[in-house]
Amino acid sequence: MLELALKKMNWKEGDDCHSHGHMGDSCHGHGGGHSHGHGGHGFGAFLPGFQSPLFERPPDSTQQPTKFSHPEDSSSWDIVKATQFGALERCKELIESGYDVRQPDKENVTLLHWAAINNRADIVKYYISKGAIVDQLGGDLNSTPLHWAIRQGHLSMVIQLMRYGADPSVADGEGYRGLHLAVLFQHLPIAAYLMAKGQEVDSLDINGQTSLMLAAQKIIGPEPTNFLLKCNASVNAVDKVNRNSPLHCAVLAGNVDAAHILLEVGASVDLENANGHTAIDLAHQVRSPLLIHMLNVVKTERIKANSMCLKVFNKYKVYLLCVFSVIVVGAFGAILDMRTESWLLKGVLLGCIMAMINLTSRMDLNAMAETYQQKSKICFILGASGETGKVLLKEIMKSNIFSKITLIGRRQLNFEDESCENLVQKVVDFEKLDEYAGVFQGHDVGYCCLGTTKAKAGDEGFVRVDHDYVLKAAELAKAGGCSHFHLESSKGADKTSSFLYLKTKGQVEADIEILGFERLSIYRPAVLLVDRQESRPAEWMVRKFLGPLSSIFPTALSIPITSVTRAMVVNTLMDGEHKVEILENKAIYSLGKI
C-alpha cells in the first residue's frame, strides 16, 4: 500500500511545465519539463495521510516534524516505516540486529533518503554514525538525500547533511544541482545558505542553465528572479544549448514580472540566441502585446539615452542650468533698464522670457519622463472609479511612463474612449482584502484615491473606507514590493482634530507613514473643482462660490482636480528629497502647473 500510494503521488515529467518550442528557441534544456518528484516516491514527505506540504503551504524548515502518535506498536514496524515516522529506538533495534544501513529498498531509495525527506535529524545522525553514505544516489531521479531535503524545504536538514559532508554541487538525474532545486522550489532561505557556503549564483546545471534562467522560465512572478539579481546573478549569461539569456527565457514563458525586473537591471534587448532571435523576436512569436510594448519602449529609450547630444547634456546639465539662470536674470535686468517709455514693449519681452522658462521646464520634464520610461515600472491605482482616480488614470496614460497599469477596485470599469494594451483590472472585496494580497504584488508605484463621504456611508462606513481599507491596501502594497506610495488626503488633515473627517485623514496618514515606504507622498488638496457625476449639493454650492474666487486666488480655498493629478504624475518623475513628503494645496498647485 505504501508503494502504491507513493507512486500515485509522483509528479510526472511535463505535468506542470509549458513547452515554448518556438522555432527551436525553447529554454527548456530538460526535455521540455522537469519532474519534481523524489525518485519513484513523489515529492511529498511520508507523513500520516500523505499530506505534502508543498501542495498546501511551505513547511517551516526550522522546525522538526511533529512526532505523530500511531495506534500500532512500533515494535512491529519495518525499518523504512520506523524511519519515516521517527521511531529512533526501533531503527536502532533493527540496525543492531544486522540490517545494513546502506542497503537501498527495491526502488533504490536508502534509509538516509527517507530520514532526510522527513526531517528526522536524530535518525540521520545515527545512520551517518553507522556508515550511511551521505551523497548516495537513489530513486528514479538519482537524487541524493540532500536533494530530497532541499526539495522539501527542510533548511535544518540541509545544514545538518552539509555538516556531514554532503556536496550540493552533485547533480541529480534531471541535471539539477542543489542551488537550482532550491530556486525551482522557491526555498530562498536554502538558496541563500547554499550561496553563503560557496555555491556560485551563476553555477550551471548539467544542461548549461543558471538559476536565474530557470527562475525566469519556470516560476511566474517577481520572485525568485528579484532575489537572484540581488545576489548579483548575471543578467546576460546564456545557456549552452540555445544561447538563450534569462530575458529570452522570461519572454518565452510569458513571465512579464521577471522580464520587467530583468529589463530594469539592464538586460540586453539586442542579445541574439543560437537562432539569431532577440527577446523582441520571441515576444512576437509568443504573441504577447504587453511584452512587445515593454521591450520596444526600453529599446527606444536606450537608443535615445545613448545619443551623443544627450550624453553631453546630461554630463554638463548642472553647468548649463547655471548659465541659463544667469542669462535669464541678466535679460530681466536689461529689459527693465531699457530706455523706452513703452511698458507694453517691456511687458511683451518679459512675457517672452517667461514663456521660454516654461518651455525649458517642460523640456526638462519630458527628459525626466523619457528616463523614467526606461525603467519599465509598474503602477496600480486604487479608486479609479472616483473623480480623482478617473482623471489620474487619463493623466498617467497620457504620460505613458509605466509599462503596466493595474486598476484595483470593487467592480470592473468600462472605458469608451480610452484603450490601453498595458491596462489591467483587478476586482477585489475590500472586506476581505487579505485574500487578494497577490493583486498588490510586483508594483513599483501605488496611487491611492480611495474615499467616500459620511453622508453616503455614515460615520462607521466612512472610517472603514477612508482609514481601514486604505491602510490595509497600503500594507499589502508595501509587502508586495511597492517603493513609492501616493496618498490623496485632505487640507487640514490632523489626527488630533475634533472633526471626524480631518481626524480620519490625519490618522491614516500617520498609520501609513509607520509602514516605512521608501518614499511616501501625501497630497492635501483643498476643495476639488470638478463636475462630479454623483450629487453632492453642499459641495456643488461651495464650488459655485469658489470657482470665480479661484481665478483670483488659485490656492486659497480650492484647486482644480486636474492640478492634483498632474502634480501626482510630475512628482512621480522627480527624486524625492525626503522619505515622507506632505504637499499642501499651494505646493500641489505649483507642481501641477509644470
**Chain-averaged pLDDT:** 81
Oligomer: single chain
Named at the architecture level, the CATH assignment of the largest domain is: 3-Layer(aba) Sandwich
User: What would CATH call the homologous superfamily of the largest domain?
Assistant: NAD(P)-binding Rossmann-like Domain
**The number of domains:** 3
Structure explained in plain terms:
By secondary structure, this protein is an alpha/beta fold. It has three domains: 36-199, Alpha Horseshoe (Serine Threonine Protein Phosphatase 5, Tetratricopeptide repeat); 308-364; 376-592, Rossmann fold, CATH 3.40.50.720. Helices cover 47% and strands 7% of the residues. It has 25 helices and nine strands. The chain has helices spanning 2-9, 53-56, 79-84, 88-96, 111-117, 121-129, 145-152, 155-163, 178-184, 188-196, 211-218, 225-230, 246-252, 256-264, 279-285, 289-305, 308-315, 317-336, 343-374, 387-399, 454-479, 500-514, 537-552, 561-573, 585-592; strands at residues 378-382, 404-409, 423-427, 445-448, 484-488, 519-523, 527-529, 558-560, 580-583. Strands 3-2-1-4-5-6-9 form a seven-stranded parallel β-sheet, with helices on both faces. α21 links the parallel β4 (445-448) and β5 (484-488). α5 runs parallel beside α7 (145-152), α18 (317-336) packs antiparallel against α19 and α20 (387-399) packs across α24. The model is unreliable at 1-23 and 31-71 (pLDDT under 50).
Key traits:
single chain, 594 residues, alpha/beta, Serine Threonine Protein Phosphatase 5, Tetratricopeptide repeat, Rossmann fold, 7-stranded parallel β-sheet, 9 strands, 47% helix, 7% strand, elongated, disordered N terminus
